[in-house]
């Protein structure tokens, strides 16, 4: 084999590595977002004075969940 072919194979193998810290961080973002949504929903339901705050918390939780999803680009 030529040296160029070996270098290409090594480069291809390095590109296929999984970044486990990013995977764990994204899973934690999904979990934390879901927890924030539940807290916002509970705030919305249980308190008549803080309904707007509950909606804002739910929105923040949804955004956190959607940012935790992987990019398909």
Principal-axes shape call: rod-shaped
Radius of gyration: 21 Å
Strand content: under 5%
Q: H/E order of the elements?
A: HHH
**Total count of strands:** 0
Mean pLDDT: 84
Helix content: over 70%
> Can you tell me the residue ranges where pLDDT is under 50 for at least 5 consecutive residues?
none
End-to-end separation in angstroms reads: 34 Å
Helical/strand content category = mainly alpha
**Major beta sheet, specifics?**
none
Quickly count the helices.
Answer: 3
Question: Strands, helices and their partners?
Answer:
Layout: H1 3-15, H2 20-46, H3 51-68
Describe this protein's structure.
The protein has 73 residues and is mostly helical. It has a domain at 18-68. 79% of the residues lie in helices and 0% in strands. The chain has three helices and no strands. It has helices at 3-15, 20-46, 51-68. Helix 2 (20-46) runs antiparallel to helix 3 (51-68). The chain is rod-shaped, with a radius of gyration of 21 Å. The model has no long low-confidence stretch (mean pLDDT 84).
